[in-house]
Amino acid sequence: MRSTRLFIFRSLGILGVLSLLSACGGGGGGGGNPEGDSPYGVRVLHAAIDGAPVDISSSAATGPLVSQQVFAGTKGYRALPDGAQRLSLTRTGTPSDVYSSFEVNAASDERYTILLYGDVATFGLRTRMLEDEVPTTGGGAWIRVVNGVTQAADLTVTVGSSPAQAVPFGGDTGYVAAGSGAINVSATRTTDGFPVQSGAITLEAGKAYTLLLAGEIGYYVKSLLFTDGR
User: Fold this and answer.
1) pLDDT-based confidence at residue 36 (cuts at 50, 70, 90)
2) pLDDT tens figures, 71-95
3) CA 167 – CA 175 distance, rounded (Å)
4) Model-level pTM greater than 0.70?
5) Which of 78, 90, 94, 157 gets the most CB atoms within 10 Å of its CB?
6) Closest listed residue to residue 115, CA positions, set 154, 153, 62, 71
7) What are the distances in angstroms from CA 87 to CA 23, 64, 103, 183?
8) DSSP single-letter state for residue 163
9) How far is residue 83's CA from residue 103's CA, in Å, rounded to a whole number?
């Protein structure tokens, strides 16, 4: 009975996400959304498969900086006001429902990522802020892998020919130097080798990327590649 209720609950959640994606032109800021991508600022990586759409607001700005970021959405950075401020991650349409807040002293050339992961029914929704300090050395590309996958306490991640790393739930590899072009990235559940990500990802020299692994093993897992900057 519990599994049936959970299936219905998650199915309804996914239908809601798909409805929002359709209304917003695929989740990338369409549908008349006034937001625009910026090379710097703040973004959300939404990895919680049954989590509601979320907004980011700032104590130094009027209105949300990011709005209606859905599970596995692809919106990029939104510009931040300079200076000290509080960033709050809230449920879309209910700004009083605050998942977490983070104090930052933002400069015009900084990038921040707020990761939403976990689930409603079992692990609870969790958040983490990452400061996206993009490497500037070397002539190749840089990539980090973020583990937002439930039912995997740890993932074993390999990027190209770099040594494998154990990445905890909600953690990341840090930026790993990689060549340009097609780079193989694999991730397996550490306990039993269950495959989560396998295949080549095309990277451009001089750029940094984040590969988000989102969802739940045994239910639905998705990988999304984000450009972090030059």
Assistant:
1) low
2) 999 999 999 999 999 999 999 999 9
3) 13
4) yes
5) 157
6) 71
7) 26, 10, 6, 34
8) P
9) 10
